[in-house]
Amino acid sequence: MQNDPGAIRSADASSTLEVALENTRRGAEAIRRGGGLFAATRLAAEIEALRLWAESGGFIRHYEELSRPPDAFGYEHEVWFPKSGSPNPRVLKATYDNSFGVMPDCREATPVGYLERLRLEN
C-alpha cells in the first residue's frame, strides 16, 4: 500500500481509510513479530502501528477549530462541522485516545475494527 501523504490527502475518504487499515494491519503484524513492549497484545500493537503510520504521514494535526466545543460527539469521538462560509469545508472528527468504539457483536473494537467500520460507512 502507498504511504505518500500527498497522494493520500488527494484521495477520497474510502481510499484513505483503506490505506490506513492496510498499514495498521501490516504494521501491527510486524510489531507482534518483533517483540517488545507494544507486542504484548494485539490492541497495543495496532495502536502503535496506527500511531506510527499517522505520524509518518503527517496526519496527526492540531486544528484551531478544536478550541471551540464540539458540534456533536459519540462514545469514542467528538465532531466539529465547518462554520458557515468556511474556506475549508471539512468536518473534523477527533477520536479519544485508545478508544475505538464497539463492534456489532458488543466487543470493544481495536484500531483495525474501528478503521474497518469507518471504511464501510464511507
From TrEMBL:
Top-level division of the source organism's lineage: Bacteria
Protein's UniProt name: Uncharacterized protein
Organism of origin: Prosthecobacter vanneervenii
